[in-house]
Amino acid sequence: MTLLEIDSVTKKFGGLVAVDDVSFTVDRGEIVGLIGPNGSGKSTMFNCIMSEYDVTGGTIRFGGEDITDYRTHQVVNNGLSRVSQESNPIDALPVGGNIKLFTLPNSVVSLRGGASEEEIYQYAARVGLESELQELPDELPHADVRRLEVAKALATEPELLLLDEPFAGMNQQEIRELAATFEEFREDGITMVIVDHNMGGLMDLVDRAVVLDNGDKLMEGPPKEVTTDERVRKAYLGGTEVP
Ligand SMILES: Nc1ncnc2c1ncn2[C@@H]1O[C@H](COP(=O)(O)OP(=O)(O)OP(=O)(O)O)[C@@H](O)[C@H]1O
């Protein structure tokens, strides 16, 4: 069953067409890779889905509902959450406090509420950060800061998680652990779209990949089809090798 539907989405910045009439769908329970070389439009697509950018054209539906013109907090309230490429924890708050912020009601006038200590522990435990709840973000190694970003997104209880380069800067062991965490999220019923410009590692995790190149959708298909496709090889490294 389709959860997310991207229907002919275009995003222009002045004369630059960052995303050009792109369509694809994501089914409930899937892990989809959104891949393509640098500058191909992957982050722009995420920004359009989260309504951080207004689309120039096209429609975005989530669970059958047209969310194209929603404000970002409405998109989040509908069950979508995103982990950005950049980590932006609040350095003055410990890990637990950073997670708690994302469980507060989505309104500037509601400062009460939020998750209990036990619930915050559970969000941290789902990414393996339960022993670091009292640590300040700048005391954490890079991989833990990235895990904190994932925990913050989890704290909004998403049905669909958009992950922008979640493995960037991690070593092989950390990548394997985070990939296993994403498999657990899937078992918990979370659907995921993962952006990466490298395909190595990601292809073992995803059910399907959508390939962008220069704002266009080049192709989509199962990992094996994508990694052996001549057009994809050409888009990456001038056709020598798929990274
Ligand atoms: N806010 C913006 N204003 C102007 N141009 C932008 C803006 N955001 C992105 N672009 C341009 O849109 C194109 C697509 O960029 P985008 O960041 O979406 O690519 P990407 O595939 O995510 O790349 P990367 O893998 O490097 O993150 C690029 O040419 C980029 O310079």
From TrEMBL:
Pfam families membership: ABC_tran (PF00005), BCA_ABC_TP_C (PF12399)
PROSITE patterns: ABC_TRANSPORTER_2
Domain of life: Archaea
Listed Gene3D superfamilies: P-loop containing nucleotide triphosphate hydrolases
GO annotation, cellular component aspect: plasma membrane
One GO molecular-function entry: ATP hydrolysis activity
Record key words, sorted: ATP-binding, Nucleotide-binding, Transport
UniProt name for this protein: ABC transporter ATP-binding protein
Residues in ABC transporter domain copies: 4-239
CDD domains registered for this protein in UniProt: ABC_Mj1267_LivG_branched
